[in-house]
Amino acid sequence: MQSLAAGSQSAVVQRRAGFRGQAARPAAPARRSMRISCAVEAAADAGEVSIRRRPPRGNETQPCGPFDYKVRGLPDDNQPRNILEEIVWYKAKEIDVWRERVPLAALLGLAKKAPPTSDFKAAIAAKSAATGKPGLIAEVKKASPSKGVIQPDFDPVKIARAYEAGGAACLSVLTDEKFFQGSFDNLKLIKAAGVKCPLLCKEFIVEAYQVFKARVSGADAILLIAAVLPNQDLAYFMKVATSLGMVCLIEVHTEGELARVLQLEGVEQHLLGINNRDLGTFKVDLALTRRIMDSPAGLEAQRRGILMVGESGIFTPDDVAFVQGAGVGAILVGESLVKQGDPAAGVRQLLSLDA
What we know:
By secondary structure, this protein is an alpha/beta fold. It has a domain at 106-351: Aldolase class I (TIM Barrel). The chain has helices at 2-16, 28-44, 83-101, 104-113, 120-131, 156-166, 184-192, 208-216, 231-243, 255-261, 287-294, 296-303, 317-326, 335-338, 343-351, and strands at residues 61-64, 67-70, 135-140, 143-144, 148-149, 170-174, 199-202, 221-225, 247-252, 271-275, 307-311, 330-333. The chain has an eight-stranded parallel barrel, surrounded by eight helices. A two-stranded antiparallel ribbon has the order 1-2. It has a two-stranded antiparallel sheet with strand order 4-5. Helix 13 (317-326) links the parallel strand 11 (307-311) and strand 12. It is globular and about 60 Å long. The N and C termini lie far apart (79 Å). The model is unreliable at 1-25 (pLDDT under 50).
């Protein structure tokens, strides 16, 4: 009798929903959420890694005793397809040199002794609440592959102090030496100078060694690039960073990459950045931020309350207003600030702040 009664009640519910022999339709918000979820899953399939981590047929030059032996006749696909791939391939050689100088075990010991980190996300939230603007991550940067030397009179501590005085929430410090003329020493110098802004290590991370090196050098956050790292590696580096008290800025260039990154467990505790620079051509399209933020993956990121960061191509107050209107809570700006004679004034002008 109970079974029959239950079946009768179910049939009444179904008829009231306008269906016979089918479950009641979910409410409109639930249907919309389901559509977004399905679209995000579909986009994730197109967001796989686009940067090869190493030459597919091995390095062209091989050590042979005191000499280097060059392999000839390798096909064209053994050359880097863009500057990011070239940077990533060189990192393997660079890390080998670092590891010879300071073994991983020794680096782990130094990381354990490092002082506590500063809260990178909280600094952005506090500054944004105070100004009504996106929290600024101002970049300490001497050069870039596309522009060459941006600031010939480069003093990392002087620039960092000026950014802080102007109203930056956090700082990004380029550590790549070969392509950006940066250094992990710049992180150490800025931290030792007493700058209070939390520091992002802007390094092209492909191994855990670099994460520990960033922490030892004074970083409070690290950069991870989705075009370079599959989700398995991203998850691992996120775990390592979290264990060291750091957060990650995970950078995406496409809706597909954002959709893939959103599948990572605990990604809400970190930051997601949208880089408006095309990896192949290095051209910048500020409208990319809006397109990705308006996509199903972007809407899902906003629904989860993830702190989104706009990167590249931000030069004016109008640019700031544009990306803020698209939904980002922070911006990362380098070139337009670091090349100025007075970076503090540049920060205030960019954010439309009073002196």
